[in-house]
Amino acid sequence: MATYLDFEKNIKSIQDEIVSAEVKRDTSAVEILKKRLDKEVEKTYKNLSPYQKLQLARHQDRPYALDYINMILEDKYELHGDRHFRDDESVICYVGYIDGVKTVVIGEQKGRGTKNKIRRNFGMPHPEGYRKALRVAKLAEKFNLPLLMLIDTPGAYPGIGAEERNQSEAIARNLLELAKLKTTTISVVIGEGGSGGALAIGVSDKLAMMRYSVFSVISPEGCSAILWSDPGKVEAATNALKITSEDLKQLNLIDDVIDEPLIGAHRDKENAALALKNYFLDSIKELNDIPLEEKLQKRYEKLTSVGAFSE
Fold this sequence. Notes:
Layout: H1 9-23, H2 27-45, H3 50-57, H4 65-72, E1 74-79, E2 91-98, E3 101-108, H5 113-119, H6 127-142, E4 147-153, H7 160-164, H8 167-179, E5 185-194, H9 195-199, E6 206-210, E7 214-216, H10 220-228, H11 234-241, H12 245-250, E8 256-258, H13 269-288, H14 292-304
Parallel strand pairs: 3-4, 4-5, 5-6, 5-7, 6-8
Antiparallel strand pairs: 1-2, 2-3
Helix pairs in contact: 1-2, 6-8, 10-11
């Protein structure tokens, strides 16, 4: 069963009417209702608030990294473990082909259902998850394969065990190593990009966001708790943080916004996957024409320009 958010109630109502008309084989009614649906979708989704976009980024039906991998990666093989401690299943790594281009894909996986969420630690990687990601990134560098990184996490796991195994060093090491990785790298925020947990696989030649994804230094809930000690201020915090793809593109903190279907990736997974695949392939063609040294220099300049402003 599809899950609908509060602002999607009118869409649900029309879709229910379409199903009813199809059962009755009333083709003329179906056509009229589909036109109504298109207008309602445009009206609803073209006027979303930042908080509503946050809800979409966290939607339980939204495609996760493994969904995209299954849809765009052919002849795939999963790589496990960090060769130091264990295999962290909140980070998934695959090698395969995207339209004939041999590619390495690293993603953060949240999981669905209680058992899977626990198995994936709700998409919050431990240090060994980031070390696993770095090991596989180095493998991509060794064989000169393009690297696609799919960001979707509320943040790195903040537990005692993670701190004991040096979570901050694992994230910092990834930032350093990915900044000088000698292969083409593309990162895409597909859902929720939370703090250092997202940055650890976010250093790349191109950083993009899906239309309804978010990217922030802290969750709106954490921000409202720290600033106002009031969970009711989450919507105000969301507005203030500027976490949507449009905001971050305007601030020049990301390179591109990927046009997932207007109705959202959670309602049209196939076309969302197609948009992601086409963006990756187009970016690869563009970046492969740039000499390595120039590419590394551009990556460095992009990183050092973050936070720069003029009065």
